[in-house]
Amino acid sequence: MLNFIDVILPIPLPNLFTYSITRAEAEFIKPGMRVSVPFGKSKIYTAIVFSIHNQEPLIYEAKEIHQILDETPIVSRYQFELWQWIADYYMCTLGEVMRAALPNAFILESETIIFRNSATTVNDSDLKDDEFLVFEALHHQTSLTIQDITSIIDKKNALPVIKRLMDKEIILVKEEVYEKYKPKLVRYVKLHKQYATDGRLQELIETLSRAPKQREVLMRLFTLSAKDHKPIKVSELIQESNASSAIIKSLVDKEILEEYYLQTDRIESNESKKNSQFALTNYQTEALDNISQNFKNQNITLLKGVTSSGKTEIYMKLIESILVTNKQALYLLPEIALTTQLVQRLQDYFGEKVAVYHSRYSSNERVEVWNHVLNNSSKAQIVIGARSAVLLPFQNLGLVIVDEEHEQSYKQFDPAPRYHARDTAIMLANIFKVKTLLGSATPSLESFYNAQQAKYGLVELNVRYNDVLMPDIELIDLKDKHKRKRMKGHFSDRLITEMTETLEAGNQIILFQNRRGYSPIVECQTCGHSPQCPNCDVSLTYHQYRDQLRCHYCGYNTVMIKTCEACGLNTLDSKGFGTEQVEKEVSTLFPEAKVARMDLDSTRGKYSYEKLIDAFQQGDIDVLVGTQMLTKGLDFRNVKLVGVMNADNMLNFPDFRAHERSFQLLIQVSGRAGRTKERGKVLIQTYNPYHNILQQVSTNNYLGMYHEQMDDRHNFKYPPIYRLIKITLKHRDYNKVNTGADWFAKSLRMLFKEHVLGPEFPPVSRIRNQYHKNILVKIPKNQSLTKTKEAIIKINNSFSSVKDFRAVRVILNVDSF
Ligand code: ADP
Ligand code: ZN
Asked: ∠ CA 544-547-549 to the nearest 5 degrees?
């Protein structure tokens, strides 16, 4: 009898591929192991064994496999089940899911290069013979290829050795190796040494009598150091003496105080462990009880808890309760919310049991987490991660938590699989027959609708921790302010007054503007021309900091032009404003305040995002200007005021979700204000203060927003009432895209009639020299999703068999955003 395996190749092939194996191999191989296989004329791929059988393929001759790469499976049967669901539901191939799921280091390819890991000390006697040979060779050569190793150990199958050496951390495969985030340095102050003698000190205090604020700081420093002889943090001093950081800075500049830096964890590790214990408040306990109650007859429960109500604490207690059963917990968060802040909180509480998994991790770190999860190791009993963590090889999952479930970044946009991590997580929980908790202060319409339909349980928590009041939200009419000349730049007099008071009280400010750069539109006042990106159909944004014009779609940039390219006059003017301009204006209005900016441009560097957050937390920044990056799960204690510079551009965004999203974004950013003691203040500047969404935001009226938006979704046939599949056609040739899209839409219309929208060019119809055109298929609840997809696939197949259209790329996006 002949033996065969079907494998998944990490490429977008619709079918599994069959290879032949020997009898001995058949006894060894199990589904979920990797094998390397020849494909096409000369390629070698790492493939995953899907099944083992005896059916010879009918239409091609099965080739032999090249090597077996594992000794035990690295992909579990639960994962196969999930992969299959993803491939079916999101209309992609298993190979695409495999690519997304496996850390790159698992997909060793023929050019992989191996290095010695100098961080590990190796005891020769711990090595098997073949391992030793490779290890030895790396003393003479800095790197080896897989071919090299094959000939060194004189075996056809080098990869198990490589894997073992990787597991023992003796070698590294070529990958970008990111350094781990170094523990942050905290700023401390002490009296400058020139005042060490009593006499000089007396003198100093007298000279400061004319500077009462500075004197107050100094006196406070003395009391603090006398009290517990500990180093004094700048942030502590600021808080205790009610001084601004500008005052501290001037004392340092005058060499009265001296700053120095220490690593936090060296000092605080014991302290934070102690503080990590907490008890739930009565409200939180009630919410937790309700969740457990709901779980008795619901698999999924939505926790709708206002910002700063302590949802995280509830998650932690829930996780704790499943840990005693030795099960694994998955805690999903949007990428950007995975700050050290939250990770630290969990690690302080759960210690070594917490593993973190997200895209900024190096491939090696990801392999480590993968193996821990696969082996059900206690080191990854709690996995906290972004989208792709849902694809880890859980063995004994006990609970899934999806925090900030409304976040659009849970949906992968490109490349395939275009999966929604929240929905996939629910499916994963389903496979393990365990519960899912979704959490948000501003649930997605989808989830809240499911709760209303009793498909999900619903638990509400409407009080903030410590009974801090919800922030007071005030709308400011920009039209009126302009008319009455009450504006300085983009700041209304109200905003300036509130900022002044906040800074004087030593509190911090967040300013939100949903555009980066200096000004998004540069336009000639004489001829109306505005500079365009040569690769995309979009105007370029002015970035003053670099004196550049940049494209936000493809990254194209050029030095700022002085005269109009069209008419030649120097009458270029800029319209609109971004974070860079806000930052600049703050510096002019408040020269004493320390301003920083948090957006894509300022956080490109490794850990620059974390550094900004640390600095803000330490009180080294008074005013933080930023884009929506600021809205995700950040917990700052000292922010009193949040200013939204302009709420209008997001409300006017051409998308059926624009209103829902604006509501979520504004409530979330408002939620950063007044989280600890006093009530926070939020000022929203707008030209449309009577806009329903803004009214709903200012009264925290989620239900009002929900009902109004749901009416629209009903009337215009959008989710969650209808499902959507978006079909995008892409090609360099405008005409090809046009005729192709017409053909496609016409075929769809024959079946789905009025439920087909388009084809339509999106607002930016050319990106990186590719034209895009979209067709939308709306699917009523009572229409079979499976049949609809089958029909679309059929049409797509006929489409690509038309010679003229073969080169047009078709992208299918199920539940598109
Ligand atoms: P949410 O996620 O709902 O916005 P958080 O979980 O971040 O709220 O809680 C807000 C703040 O209140 C955090 O600083 C948190 O540490 C604190 N907090 C919440 N509940 C408790 C509790 N039971 N004991 C101590 N601190 C708490
Ligand atoms: Zn561009």
From this structure: 90
Where do the structural domains in the chain lie, given as residue ranges?
3-109, 119-171, 193-255, 282-464, 472-515+579-711, 519-576, 723-814
Task: Establish whether 567 is an annotated binding residue.
Answer: yes
Atom of ligand 1 nearest to the CA of 671: 4
Cβ atoms of 399 and 322 within 8 Å: the answer is yes
Ligand whose nearest atom lies closest to the CA of 537: 2
Superfamily of domain 472-515+579-711: P-loop containing nucleotide triphosphate hydrolases (3.40.50.300)
pLDDT of residue 263: 55
Inter-residue contact 590 to 583 (CB < 8 Å)? no
Q: What is the Å distance from ligand 2's center to 695 Cα?
A: 36
The kind and range of the H/E element at 421 are helix 421-431
- Nearest CA among 5, 10, 6, 4 for reference residue 94: 10
Q: Identify the CATH assignment for 282-464 out of 3.20.70.20, 3.40.190.10, 3.40.50.300, 3.40.50.2000.
A: 3.40.50.300
Closest CA to 675 of 437, 386, 466, 535: 466
The answer to whether the beta carbons of residues 319 and 350 sit under 8 Å apart is yes
Residue with CA nearest ligand 1 atom 23: 280
User: What SS3 class is residue 760?
Assistant: strand
pTM of this prediction exceeds 0.90:
no
pLDDT value of position 174? 62
Residue with token string 């462990």: 273
- According to DSSP, the residues that pair with 18 across neighbouring strands are 6
Helix (H, G, I), strand (E, B) or coil at 5: strand
The tokens describing 601, both together, are 């441009």
Whole-number pLDDT of residue 108: 63
Q: What is the CA radius of gyration of the chain?
A: 30
Question: b/e for 401-436, b at 16 or more Cβ within 10 A?
Answer: bbbbbbbebbbbeeebbbbbbbbbbbbbbbbbebbb
Please check whether residue 89 is in contact with residue 70, taking contact to mean a CB–CB distance below 8 angstroms. Answer: no
**Please, what's the largest Cα pairwise distance for the chain?**
100
Is 536 assigned to a binding site?
yes
pLDDT digits (tens, 9 = 90+) for 724-736: 999 999 999 999 9
Closest residue by CA, ligand 1 atom 22: 280
Nearest CA to ligand 1 atom 14: 635
Give every CB contact of residue 207 below 8 A, 6+ residues apart in sequence: none
Cis preceding-peptide flag for 57 (omega within 30 of 0): no
Question: Ligand 1 atom closest to Cα of 403?
Answer: 2
What are the pocket residues of ligand 1 if the criterion is a CB atom closer than 6 Å to any ligand atom? 278, 280-281, 284, 305, 307-313, 465, 635, 675
Give the pLDDT of residue 510.
Answer: 95
The answer to whether the annotation marks 92 as part of a ligand binding site is no
For residue 342, give the ligand 1 atom closest to its CA: 7
Read off the tokens for 751. Answer: 């079946």
User: With a cut of 50, which residues of the chain have pLDDT below it?
Assistant: 175-183, 265-274
Q: Domain 3-109 - what CATH class?
A: alpha beta
**pLDDT for residue 185:** 63
Which ligand gives the minimal distance to the CA of 532?
Answer: 2
With contact defined as beta carbons under 8 Å apart, do 809 and 768 qualify? no
Within a 13 Å sphere around the CA of 472, how many CA atoms are in the beta-carbon half? 6
pLDDT value for 359: 73
What's the chain's length in residues? Answer: 817
What is each CA distance from 691 to 162, 442, 664, 710, in whole angstroms?
62, 19, 15, 17
Closest ligand (CA of 550): 2
Residue 564 labeled ligand binder: yes
CA of 30 to the centre of ligand 1 (A): 46
Please say whether the dihedral angle defined by the alpha carbons of residues 484, 489, 492 and 498, taken in this order, is positive or negative.
negative
- Give the burial class of 355: count Cβ atoms within 10 A of its Cβ; 0-12 exposed, 13-18 middle, 19 or more buried: buried
Nearest to 720 by CA among 802, 601, 815: 815
- Give the atom of ligand 1 at the shortest distance from the alpha carbon of 345: 16
